[in-house]
Specification:
about 525 residues; alpha+beta; 19 strands; six-stranded antiparallel sheet; signal; eleven-stranded antiparallel sheet
Amino acid sequence: MACKQRILHIFILSVSLISCSAAACAAVMSMSLYFKKINVNVNEFGNYLPHHYAVKQMYDTGIRDQYERQMSAVFSMISLLEGEYRSRMIVNNELQENKTIEFSEQAFSAIIKKLCTTNKQNPVCKSLNPFTLEGISISQLIKLIQAFPSTLGGSLFPKSTCPFLDSTSKDPYQCNATLNYASNPIKFTIKNLKWSDEIHGIKELLYSSMKPILFTMPQLLAEYYIPCDDPRANETLECAAKTFDCPYNPTKKCGILQFPSHTLSGEYFIPNEPVGVAVGTPINFEIVGYSDWFVPTRGRMSLKQMKMSQGGFIAKGPDRDIGFPITVFTGDLKKSSAHGLCPNARASHFWYGPLRSCMKKGPDVVECSAMDNDDEYDTEKSFESADVLQCIDMNYCKEGARYSILHMPSRTYDTMVYEDKESGMTKTPMILLKKESVEDVVYDHVPFYLLGNIFDKMGADEADRSCGYWFIPYDVIEKVKSVTKDGEVLGFSFDVDFDKSSLLSKIPDGQFKRQLKITNAPNRVISRLFKKHN
């Protein structure tokens, strides 16, 4: 039986700059892309896609700890271009399979800023006022690259040319190095752009291209409705205006506290009532695979507010301390086996606190096992000591103070976490560790799943570069689509052509080659899946 053919869309960009009235420009900027749309048959896989898939390892350049900026369109694009270049050099025997290179997102950002400074009437540049690359979408970035091919097509400089600056810098888009894109030996162009806003279509884009694709959607947020007479809601806009009625008690006014709807092990989830759902600014990912079977495991977080999902996309994350290797999501590496590589020290559901029976012996939690030594069932599993947590955000805890969480008084190793029946905000029993004593506290300023942003697990092991991959469930994407406009949730694939002069053997500039700093690539478990489909 012939496979059902699905229709996706391909856009062809008109690269000529246009002049327009203010109203017309606003209309252009509101579009996800200024392209002519035509229909084409992308592939013949139809509904017969494999249930899980991941791209070849030669596209994997590892995670670089660049935190929230890695979720910008520019940083995601550079990550994809690195993988494209690496794979091309491996195929051409220019680079060993266990080696990789790094391009500078910082240099690319600086060139775009300079470009938009001198081309302020370009619709994309006009929309970036005040200038912030965190506000640019993938579609806008592709438009810029094709509108200015000689400039941005020559903007892949070595990482060492222009080191990374985080978003707290005075000007995070600057580069002190001289960037001569006209003489840059690496040249690239983008062509054959395809997109889809459907789950199946995005899977087809990934599987038919057999290389990473780009994905964008607004950040999914969890909303907690806190009464205005509660100090936690004092500074909210809703309480300042006293205009928002509490959903669970219309006679009261509430403020809204919003938090990202993902755990610090890199797994998105849909909030359940009484927690509300909202969306924030666009986030962007490089998609490297998918699994229809993977179920995000929330560890010891049995929270009603977190909807259980199954199936989703594997995405390259912004921080190797959050997430797992690709092969965990494809089922080729057990999550328990991955903890040695990826301790996920910021994920609170992986923290171990002392049992109350141990704390009766004294205030030094470091001397406490995370399990009751008198328990006859813990002979095969034990921990050297409970985890000590240090406050790193003075806005939410006593800066520098040490804490620990508590386990349930049972053999299940469940963390003691409760949920407020009205707001859904979690309440986590903790211990404030003092010099001569301990103090019981109930922490309810931040949801339990985000405690790793407030407390630092002391003595945590560093994660391997193969870690840091996130999981975006299909139902999360559908939920975001249901509360946003068309065109805000999109997957993109395209071909990248590198000029012949871009080959390592063709680059005459010895200093440029030295700056590329060819380094070891992250390891990955090669699975039966890869052997079958790659």
